[in-house]
Amino acid sequence: MKAARFYDRGDIRIEDIPEPTPDTGEVLIKVAWCGICGTDLHEYLDGPIFCPTHDTPHPISGETAPVTMGHEFSGVIEALGGGIDDLEVGDHVVVEPYIIDNSIDTGETSKTYHLSPHMNFIGLAGRGGGLSEKVAVKRRWVHKISPTIPLDQAALIEPLSVGYHAVERAGDIRPGDVALVGGAGPIGLLTAAVLKAKGATVVISELSTLRRQKAQETGVADYTFSPQETDIVEEISKLTDGRGADIAFECTSVNAVLDTLFDAIKPTGVIVVVSIWGKPAQLDMQKLVLKEVDLRGTIAYVNSHPQTIKLVESGKIDLAPFITGKIMVDELIDKGFDTLIHRNETAVKILATTDPALLHRP
């Protein structure tokens, strides 16, 4: 079967590899669509980061490079390994793409399995990936979805779960709470979508005109401002009668954005850092101390997929507007990575498939 394989920094190859077969407790999925994530771009430009090297196997998967890429994917069950009686061939599914040691409690009440040692992801550290025709996945990580959700939109449930968990980390959201989102990249937009679904008033600060337009077009923001043209803190003060934002989300890994959030947040407010920072940040501790601000981190998701799926199935979140391109896996570098690296203001989520019939389906 065809698959996109990570060999090293700047070296991803489209190759033919053997099809997987499901072991006991595994589900064989025929992949429909797979999104290109910012993490994939970082691996291509700066990796290996999550991906293993040729010489050092991942501690849990045991695999070395090359590995199949792709962790944001949807598909249809093609076969079931032994011991699975709650799914059927033909079911539409998405994957919570974790690689986690078998000794870790990953039950439905766990809130920490995503923080376990050597945690990694299908499509980055081995065990197949969504940028291929088929993948075999442990039953625990397979989530059935309604066939009413188009499979292209379903591929965005994984990144939407990132936004869901980020909002969950902020605490209880009450209708009318003012949420300030710094950055309108894919995760910023999807975090805003969750906030709107929960009844918050969403304000987005974003330099890019095109990204602000996308935030408005998708309806995930009540207000959008450019920090170059507008005093964000002053606007938040006007919108809240001088109180300040109730919650804020840092989605850029830019220090100036974090500083703005501290100035705009109300005393006792919550700031959630969603972005991955490649370098240390500077923080004015007096702002944290004197306003009694809660600064919280968030990473990926933990038992977030079921509730995220319900939001989409209920119609509270429409994922269609966030899909800005569809390509064949063969075009991954030229039409996928190149667009997202060099023309990222024009793209939110680009999806890839190995099935030409899906690409040309209206």
Automatic annotation (TrEMBL):
Enoyl reductase (ER) domain sequence ranges: 10-329
InterPro entries: ADH-like_C (IPR013149), ADH-like_N (IPR013154), ADH_Zn_CS (IPR002328), ER (IPR020843), GroES-like_sf (IPR011032), NAD(P)-bd_dom_sf (IPR036291)
Keywords: Metal-binding, Oxidoreductase, Zinc
Source organism, top-level taxon: Bacteria
Keyword presence, Cell wall biogenesis/degradation: no
SMART domains assigned to the protein according to its UniProt record, in alphabetical order: PKS_ER
Entries under Pfam families matching the protein: ADH_N, ADH_zinc_N
Cofactor dependency: Zn(2+)
Record-level Gene Ontology MF annotations: oxidoreductase activity; zinc ion binding
Record bears the keyword Signal: no
Family note: Belongs to the zinc-containing alcohol dehydrogenase family.
Descriptive protein name: 2,3-butanediol dehydrogenase
Source organism (scientific name): Rothia amarae
